[in-house]
Specification:
By secondary structure, this protein is α/β, with parallel strands linked by helices. The protein is built from twelve helices and five strands.
Length: 296
Amino acid sequence: MKKFSYQIGIFVVILFIVNLLLFNLGNDLYYKNYDNHDLNYKSYLFSDSHGAQLKTYPHQYGVYNFSADSESYLDIQRKINFLIEHTALDTIYLSADEQMLSTYREKLNNADKSMYYATSEDFPNQFAYFKSQISQKVIYFQPKIGLVLRKYVVAKLENIPSLFETDQDRTNKTQSSLNWNDFTLDFKEEKVRNRLNNQFTSQKNSMQLQETLVDIIRVCKSNNIVLIGVKFPLTKAYYNVVKDQHFGVDSIFKANGLKVLNFQSLYINNDDLFVDVDHLNTKGGKKFTELLFKKH
């Protein structure tokens, strides 16, 4: 019996060490800086890829850019609760773009990654919170990290480092020296149709994200946090087809006495400031950041 217990103990120790090594490697590969944050700010910008395009420019205006590609209101809610526990948060700039309430954004989000920022406030009870924290730190309960690790091993064996590039990584590389002006009219029209179909056509309002947005507003009010909605600039081609598409974001802000800064048409005659139909390029991001935070 003692021998068996000894062997079990050795197995558990080995399992723990393997988990630790794989988890650290998997985290680096999978999170790709998603877990980076700075608690030395009082104002934060939250958005999906539209805000992420502003990079670190907001920092010089005292606003930390906490945006991320594919970010949803669920992910943002977790980050806000995290900040409330650890900072003297006083102002939030929050994306009020219509796709933030679409079923598209409900399905495509960072729910697994944002668990990193989850607090007890995000769960119905302490047991559920404790269970989630344990699960997040055990590689065997993280199938996506496991998939990334398998790809990493294959890439190392076959010497194919590009295997780990995300679609956004490839887009950034491809468009690093391009802007929306550089593409043909046919290409632009195709991209506009694709984006419209993905985010709006046949898409419905997400009740889950709507409830989450309402809860974010409630939490901000109860903690005396100033909440400002922001609609990011769009190209003229895209603005003309989505300006009348609504999922109710504005009405929720208005019903709660909050303002929304609408910049969708700000650069409709400046295609050189965009990398695609609705994302600013480096030049555009810097220019928009200065406008947004110098005045507000």
